[in-house]
């Protein structure tokens, strides 16, 4: 297990900060840690099929300017041990165990896509742990279209294979010239880390995560009125994976939420608009 003290300053960037492991809930969880400062630690949770290498370096570097950022792999994903869970609730319990093992007793929390589902369930399981929440490209349990993520994504994954392009080109971004340019820039940023990379996700873990996503989409609507934390909800206005209406619904149902929808942007709206999103998120977290 490798857990560095929170007081340690770091000159690393997201592309150079080392991989670490923390033991929790009977297995090892891979994570990276970046930044220092007086801000409350920020825990980051990523999307379906993502490892540590799929976090956007510009967003991580930007958010770590005055706080310590922790980004984690789920169980069975990347270098984390064990088998990927089949429910969001299990993922949330795992992440809570990892946060505790890291010695974090009070955090801010940010989840993208599947990470947003997990963040919402962490709030349900441990309501007093989190101060503020950023939910991006995500939706509530039972949200419209979430149980169809596989059906929507599979043709575009195949299209990526046939066109020799990363499927995120089609899944995360619009087909406009602006969207295609943003996709190219984002995918180039993901290549900036040249060494000490995370392990790629396995096909088995990828499929198990999809089952968890579809199960989340089939759950009955949950009561979000009990979530009193301030929440920043952000997405593109043309998300086809977790339809943008889910972000609007989240902002409507959460008692203390702010909504940002980026124009001509899809599921990866925060990546396309990272230059606007990072200052917005920092202002929200620091206010």
Automatic annotation (TrEMBL):
Residue intervals of the AB hydrolase-1 domain: 41-271
Q: What SUPFAM superfamilies is this protein classified in?
A: alpha/beta-Hydrolases
Recorded hits in Gene3D superfamilies, A to Z, give:
alpha/beta hydrolase
Q: Does the keyword Hydrolase apply?
A: yes
Kindly give the InterPro entries that the UniProt entry links to this protein.
AB_hydrolase_1 (IPR000073), AB_hydrolase_fold (IPR029058), AB_hydrolase_sf (IPR050266)
* PANTHER family registered for this protein in UniProt: MONOACYLGLYCEROL LIPASE, MONOACYLGLYCEROL LIPASE ABHD6
Entry superkingdom? Bacteria
User: What single Pfam family name could you report for this chain, choosing any that match?
Assistant: Abhydrolase_1
The answer to whether UniProt assigns keyword Coiled coil to this entry is no
User: Per its record, what are the GO molecular function terms?
Assistant: hydrolase activity
The name this protein goes by in its record = Alpha/beta hydrolase
Keywords of the record: Hydrolase
